[in-house]
Amino acid sequence: MGDTQDWTAAPGAAERARSVLAAAWSCAVTADGAREEYVGAHTVTDDGAVRLAVPDDSALLTAAVCAPRQEPSAVLEFADVAPVPVRGRIRSRLYLAGWFAPDRGTLLFRPTRVVLRQPSGAVVIDLGEFAAARPDPLAEAEARLLTHLADAHPDAVERLTRLVRPESLHAVTRVLPLAVDRHGLTLRIERTRAHGDVRLPFHAPADDVAQLTERMHALLAQAGAAACPRALQRQRADGDG
Fold first, then answer.
1. Digit-coded pLDDT (tens) for 102-124
2. CB-side exposure of 241: number of CA atoms within 13 Å?
3. CB–CB of 139/208 below 8 Å?
4. Predicted TM-score (pTM) above 0.85
5. Which of 23, 90, 112, 215 yields a CA-CA distance of 20 to 30 A from 209?
């Protein structure tokens, strides 16, 4: 379920895809009808190719050696999982179709098709844009930042809801941080039978964690000047009762 808050200043699809790729710790590889899961085995080159370390006796290595060069021989899948335990934790999935080639004791995967599947739908990303894009500068720190915000500063999350339109908080049961990038923070608004997301844009992009801290303080100062939403007032009263 979507909410009415406007979404502004968000990363483009190519940047989002590169961010998923940069932050992912595991990937699933489907080749020759078989599917294998690899954890902590891949790295990413500057142009978005994926280098995968596999055992010498891996069936995937054999398939890569035998496959015709330049033909799609595998599909790689990366899940973008919210670090905070919200309802519906898979924020998006990234699919790379392409071919493997042995390279310096590893397998180098070159994508020939890139698809980012989000709740709003699937987007096919231009290969040139994907190769040229760079991950969001906060992508690799996002999990640590969001879990710290949720676990150590729930009061700050509640205060930020003062920046959310009242209609988006109707029947709210829980609000948690879902995502953060250099352009803004996204909150997950959970209700009894549905949920939606609201984006709080920063006044300027944050290119590192220090700048993010300043942007968050600015949001909190803005929230401090706003009234507490009635929905959360009722929720707090119910919890005290």
1. 898 899 999 999 999 999 999 99
2. 6
3. no
4. yes
5. 90
